[in-house]
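Researcher: I need the complex structure. Ligand is thiamine diphosphate. Inputs:
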Amino acid sequence: MRKIKTKGAKIIIDVLREEGVDTLFGYPGGAVIDIYDQLAKSDLRHIMTRHEQAAVHAADGYARASGKVGVCLVTSGPGATNTVSGIASAYMDSIPVVVLTGQVPTQLIGNDAFQEVDIVGITRPCTKHNYLVKSVEDLGRMLKEAFHIAHSGRPGPVLVDIPKDVMQGSTVYTPIKEVQLKSYNPTYEPNVKQLPKVIKLIKEARKPLVFAGGGVILSKASKELTEFARKIHAPVTSTLMGLGAYPAGDPLWLGMIGMHGTYRANISSSECDLMIAVGVRFDDRVTGKVDAFAPHAQIIHIDIDPTSIRKNISVSVPIVGDCKITLEKLNRLLADEDLGDLGTIRAPWLSRIDQWKATKPLAYEQRDTIKPQFVVEKLWELTKGQAIIATEVGQNQMWAAQYYHFDQPNHFITSGGLGCMGFGLPAAIGAQIACPDKLVVDVAGDGSIQMNIQEMGTVMQYKLPIKVVILNNGYLGMVRQWQQLFYDCCYSCTQMIEAPDFVRLAEAYGAVGLRATKPAEVEKTIKKGLSTPKAVIMDFVVEREECVYPMVPSGKPITEMLLV
Amino acid sequence: MNNNHNQESRRHILSMLVDNQPGVLSRVAGFFSGRGFNIDSLCVSETTDPLVSRITLVAEGDMNILEQIKKQLNKLINVIKVMDFTETDYVQRETALVKVRAKPENRAEILRMADIFRSRVVDVGTEFYTLEVTGDGGKINAFLKLLKPLGIKEIARTGAVALARERK
Ligand SMILES: Cc1ncc(C[n+]2csc(CCOP(=O)(O)OP(=O)(O)O)c2C)c(N)n1
Ligand SMILES: [Mg+2]
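Model: Output:
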């Protein structure tokens, strides 16, 4: 019997379907027409963004909100180069994304052909792995490997560069059931010998602190983390990426740690005698001056990526393993332990923390201009903390992190490691596609929103009821803040001059535009925006020179905070 | 790093088995440059398995840096195995080709030195001899030092290759 051959472009669709993909984000071009042709004949949903960077951010937002792999498809050359910021952002935050790029035909590679670019070379340092498919026989396997690598272990973006002749060629394609890679074997199961050491340290500790990161969310371990912290009666802080991993409404929650962390979280980290770090990588925005970080603590570090452990900080108990599996095992061990009367044992530590909270809470002064913090606080109140919040980058991002109190994982979607302006709106698109029944809000700055504002077109095309909340300070506020605090108020090139009228801009796209200029209008505006069944841009004209506090100056110990 | 031990910087010979594919060397080299680590020498060749290549790489650093380098290299999808020979017993060789000025009055001396170092003349020109010498880095450095006064035109060194010693 003659075996039936399948075209490369069709194999791509087949693998996507085998991987459970139902939606992808992309932008067509000459080198990928074959794939788009097959796409039209398939049941896959394609969301066409207005820029390839946005397509990757959208795939990333989709992945963060759904926990599934986000997929992105773009053409060769400029289509491919436009994806780089999106890929780098996903890489820094360990988000599983598969990016498919078209490439010139194999026989033209290396000839400086029209729209040829070495995207595999360009993205080598900002992907978890990448492939150039040289023959249609390799296509199915490489795509399967790409998905496997993207979502397993410490997740990350994987790029597959596919020359046009590979899409057009045919081969006998048999679906690959299981991917086998001899040189890639993430460690999920923790070394059980390490776990009793954790229990012992917990029993000895007087001032423990649980420190959670994005790894908890990626491994879907929020439930286990919450159980763990409550069981050992330890307060919890998290990185920016870890917000939502632990319910902010819980009395043990301290708020975020780091450069713009809460006073009590930062001080607790320097006073604690045991730090249980789960799914974090001790980024410099978290630790401040490394030598002064957690000086009195024994550190237990649980992470799936062995390179995260002892990269910046030396630890007493390193545990390489999946956060969820490790916490589950610890919880089981703890169930059999007599931990004593933890309520009494922890009382002095927890009451000290409560004092810090009482004396130095997150705060801002109300005035007759709108305070940006007030807008976020109201947004939290009026959405009952249930919205998915995407953010842009800068002050708006930090205020969203500080004043929107996240009670659940996968609800805070932000470009943490790269801090990539222009992330929020396309990421909100991805999140809204992943969660059509959820309220999705992009908390934006007047600068960042202009970096991918063209995505309002995508929002309208797919009738996405996304709400954009612009904290409009007329500045590249976060940079201005640094200039104010560390450069003698020399506001070099940080004024946002000639910003568009965002209300009319919304209207030009067919969305609804609202504006508030006084504190009394804030609630009304948010309510009106939220009750509008289509896309809305809300322009909040806020206090121009407000700063984000607390702030730890770069390179200083995180206990040295500038406060309001 | 906030710990003070393990801070002595040493030379490490790393031997890696990697997939024999285009781009793999670039991933390894790119990792070093991207993270600001220096490569002192690098050798790549196929193994008995044509699907696998061996990269022998010399780098300097304290134990913490080396631990990080090894973990990061292991993390690269195409790296199958990383061995650090520093802690073990190993044999190490490097080859150098040296073009040395061969004035008539120096020729005998050059040959005598070559003899001592078990070096061979592999090319003879009117003005220059090209010598080949193999050994560890120290031996080659010593040989070059002796030849230097005679006038070295150019040298090419392979960088170290190494294998662990078998148990006796
Ligand atoms: C793509 C990109 N370019 C530059 C920066 C540097 N940067 C960080 S925050 C910021 C200001 C952002 O301004 P805006 O969006 O208005 O937010 P605000 O801080 O005012 O809330 C800039 C320019 C960046 N993070 N990303
Ligand atoms: Mg601004």
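Model: Summary of the prediction. Chain A touches chain B through 23 residues (CB under 8 Å).
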